[in-house]
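Researcher: Quick sanity check before group meeting.
Model: Go ahead. Protein one:
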Amino acid sequence: MKKTIENVRASLRLIFFFLLSLATVILVGAGNVLLRLVKPPVVAKWKNRIITIWAYLTAQILGLSITSEGTPPRPPFFLVSNHLSYIDVIPLWYFLDGTFIAKSEVSKWPFFGWGTRTLGVLFINRTLQSDVRRMNRRIADTISNSQGIILFPEGTSSKGERVLPFNSSLLNYPAKKKMPVSSAVISYRSTDADRPAWSHVCWWGDMAFLPHFWELLKIKKVDVRIRFGDKRTASDRKKLSKKLHEQVSQ
């Protein structure tokens, strides 16, 4: 009986999640085309509003109970966060008007690749050193009074035992501008004893995406806590990276 309930729950959630995400991408895509004829800032505000609604409704669909501490930054901002799962984007987009920097592999995922490209996510090829320079230029072009930048400097997700070393290469923009960089820490707690957060919410190692997502959908409720920390500033990207790593680790 329990397995039947879980499978029904996961199936309904998957359907609603897909339909909501499809509608979100269509609305943002339409805004990208139509509102650009008015003013670019209007496009960003439209996108921010639609994505905030998506994050709120997705949290309801997936059974995510989100609480926060601290004050979320407002655009223009540059924020770094620890990285535990593909669902990290939900609590971050829940509170922030910004776009993410993601690895280029995500752009090739079925549906998610098309969707994230439409939503304005910036993609970097981490295997090419030359792409770092291109991405730093994209950061400078993207950040505005309507749009912040959200970065996972660990470069990959983990099960949360510790904060992995930060890659400083994409902190060049805020370092050169001496721009204060915000930080956030995300943590998860599963209410299902058979599906602890470290293995069924966190996505790490060689875990296959679809089987992991299906098991995540079965969890009745996941407590999500996001804590926004103080800002850090440094004119050298490596020093800035060290300061931010210490902040997030604490």
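Researcher: Fine. The other one?
Model: Protein two, sequence then structure:
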Amino acid sequence: QRHITKVPYDPIIPVHTVWDLGISDDMAIGFYQVSGLEPRMIDFYFSNGKPLDHYVQYLKEKGYNYGKHFAPHDIRVRELATGKSRYEICQQLGVTFDIIPNLPVQDGINAGRGILGRLWADEAKTAYFFDALLQYKREWDEPHGHFRDKPLHDWTSHAADVHRYFSIVIDQMRNDSQTVKQFVPHFNY
């Protein structure tokens, strides 16, 4: 439907972020704006091997006017080394998350399929995201000769999880003036 095209950032509409906190230190962030019933993915970022303050600084450098930040429930898990959760660490850095409901993976995948036809996306900034989404697949059970019910966890999983989470929280991405805020971190470099 030619929805993957040039989709510029609209400074009047808040940018909501959806995060996937990967196993080990992989991290993916989707940047979304919603205009009426039209969801727009204006940007995507994926990296690994970097501390949380790197990702918070990345948000600041984008210069977007942010609305809400969404993260999965496991952001509240406390790290053994520090005794703090990633939720608490990010909050100290200036990002407070809304927690995404912990739904069965298949429910999220179905929701993601349902919204994909409505989503507009910036072709240049989301190329990696769509490359991963197109290659996301279920796990093959060789001994039994069929696909398992769960998706294969590989490099595509983080983008797919961002999309799955986005489809769950899109109704919470409001554009009222209460939501929009200029990002101001609570740390200095």
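Researcher: One line on it for the slide.
Model: The radius of gyration is 17 Å.
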